[in-house]
Amino acid sequence: MTLSEWTAVLSLCLAFFSIWLPVQSHLYSNLYAGDKVIRLTPKNNSEVSALKNMCQQFKVDLWQPSSVSYIREGTIVDAHITRNNSHALLAYLQHTSLQYKVLLSNLQNLIEKQVGVWSFRHRRAVSQYNYEMYHSLDEIQRWMFYMNGTHSDLISMFSIGKSYEGRPLFVLKLGKRTRPYKRAVWIDCGIHAREWIGPAFCQWFVKEDRFWRKTRSKNSRFHCYGADANRNWKVNWCDEGASLNPCDDTYCGSSPESEPEVKAAARFLRKHRKQIKAYLSFHAYAQLLLYPYSYQYAEIPNFNCVEYAAYNAVNAIRSAYGVRYKYGPASSILYVSSGSSMDWAYKNGIPYAYAFELRDTGHFGFLLPEYLIKPTCVETMLAVKNIAMHILKKCH
After folding, report:
1. pTM for the complete prediction?
2. pLDDT above 90 for 104
3. Annotated active-site residue in 139, 195, 257, 357
4. Residue 211: is its pLDDT beyond 70?
5. Does the annotation count 112 as an active-site position?
6. Which positions ≥6 away from 356 have C-beta within 8 Å?
7. Strand positions, DSSP E, 219-303
8. How far is CA 255 from the centre of its chain?
9. Side-chain half-sphere of 29: how many Cα atoms within 13 Å?
10. What's the rounded mean pLDDT across residues 92-96?
11. Which of 91, 138, 152, 187 has a Cα at 20 to 30 A from 175?
12. Does residue 360 have a cis bond before it (omega within 30 degrees)?
């Protein structure tokens, strides 16, 4: 069996989070003007305490890691600070002698470079779709309909449910229809909306063969929206690395699969889990290739096979442009987190489950420039093909 004979299930069902607002005279009404992103690395317990206190006191938007609970000695911390808090926060850092580096001095300027020209540049017809730029939800869905209509022999499109806001959750199924029960690979991109490079890769994947993290559900007791869709799966739900506070970025939801987006995806995966041999979830940023477990420090039963495939995949990535990825169990390489889609997939019988953290390592963070879409997608395609070919072979 060759790679082209595989059925690949490409899910953009979670990419609907990535919605950019219509460009006005001032993009996002200058919402991020004067905002900064700074990097700090605490060297001792005293600095860890001071940094955690800073995050809580000033309500800092953490870009990396995703929760204050993950901050320990030596942890690289990327923090988005608002213009209103900037003066007081930087004074706090000076008072506590916390060393920091400014990664982005004006977030608004970079956003405008990224998407500010969207309303001015000519949008080509969907038949001339540009895969080297970021697209809105409407554009992505028009593209999905177009691909379904023009490549009906290889692509089928269907909905597996609706989001909290009533939007259809579309899936593209890729592969020849001669054998409906072929082995399959599930890919999802955009489970965290601000990670724009994820949905861009999913579209690139089909061709070849923005600061919101959570879902959009409302909480009746709090004024905070949504849950972390990658903490809402029914596997060690809301244990270490997840929060019961609806206002936290890592809020696990009111119950497992409380989010309709997660429930719909889980229902589909459970129904087809005998066919699906690999689960790939794409995120940003850190340049990591992760595999189970996330929720505990333990070795998975088929560790040797999964690790060998990961080793070859990161080498494939490096072969393109020399970009280095680290690989290993998520709990060891990143941090312990519960309720993740990757662990859920593995626990539900999908033997190869991976989560990619794509480019970069923090210089641009979530605002990866469009000129880096192509090289990121090219190198990632090599990794995906490498994993798929590995699955075709027997591994012991």
Report:
1. 0.83
2. yes
3. 357
4. no
5. no
6. 280, 281, 282, 283, 288, 289, 290, 380, 383
7. 276-284, 288-291
8. 22
9. 1
10. 93
11. 138
12. yes
